């Protein structure tokens, strides 16, 4: 951990990360602590764990993320605790409680996954129950500008401001007095972020090797002017609709400027959330269906390999998503290989920038790998909104963070 922190320090100095605290980290250095960190970027752990100033942090990480060539043994040595995302995982909870009992530190990303659009993802209200039972100090860490420097849709690293703020939100004595609902609301308020709203005031430039519009059509598929699907394309620093001619430039501040068209969201996050609201309307129709040709896969566990050799093919055929759930009909070695996943058990079909969908169901991890490259973000949005039809608590948590102002304008 000492060596890794030294390396992380070099990266943070190169990136120019700025840190601020509303408490003295030394005063709780020997006490049980839970660090609740935002997850705006894929490099969040480099910023937030380093600045936490503890060398005994056990980070909770998605199961699939530690099964990568060259990382598994390192992660285990660093005390990383694996977690089946969105699923009850009692082994993980027991491991976390053992850390706290020895006065250690836990690093949690309560959103579960990296933000797609630069603002807060839902936090499972059950997180508040674990916090209350932990009897630990609770520190909340939120970043500013991290998504803009390392956004979700492109691997191009941008140069620009990144700020990290740490706040001691609860002590063990405070947790005794608070309800789970009060804890949930406080954590959500403290951890909330929106990098596009932040930069409208901060006015920091983010410049990389590629324009800031590069590959943004991986998360934007719906034209805000004519509402045509999958007609958007990127031309240098502009997003252009091939059907109606709508176009908008994304500048070095991530502003949407030089609009050609009648309707345009105020920023990328609002555009993304508006897409979600449109999908939420569509999936309520009994005739709603999405399909794609490809393979259903899982991961090799016997020997670590590099992608795509780390995949076990379970079936080759057609994936089909309706408001009743997900199904995959296909064959393997000449035999029928069909799978059904209920809407209640699939929280999301998370899109990977490497061109596939991934999801958990009953503590098993799966991938849907399309036969041809295509925009997959509607699958993610549709699967999440379909699950919300059957999960009142999760639907409420989504409602806390996904409101679209542009939806009101279009309505």
Explain this structure to me?
The strands form three sheets. Strands 12, 13, 14, 15, 16, 17, 18 and 19 form an eight-stranded antiparallel β-sheet that branches. A seven-stranded mixed β-sheet has the order 1-7-6-2-5-3-4, with helices on both faces. Helix 11 crosses helix 12. The mean pLDDT is 93. It has 14 helices and 19 strands. The chain has helices spanning 2-15, 44-51, 63-66, 72-77, 90-101, 126-134, 146-149, 172-177, 180-191, 195-202, 268-282, 377-388, 392-399, 405-410; strands at residues 18-21, 33-37, 57-62, 81-83, 105-108, 137-144, 163-170, 232-235, 238-241, 247-250, 256-260, 290-299, 311-322, 325-332, 335-336, 339-342, 350-351, 357-361, 364-370. With 411 residues, the protein is of the alpha+beta class. The protein starts with a helix and ends with a helix. A hairpin with a 2-residue loop joins strand 13 and strand 14 (325-332).
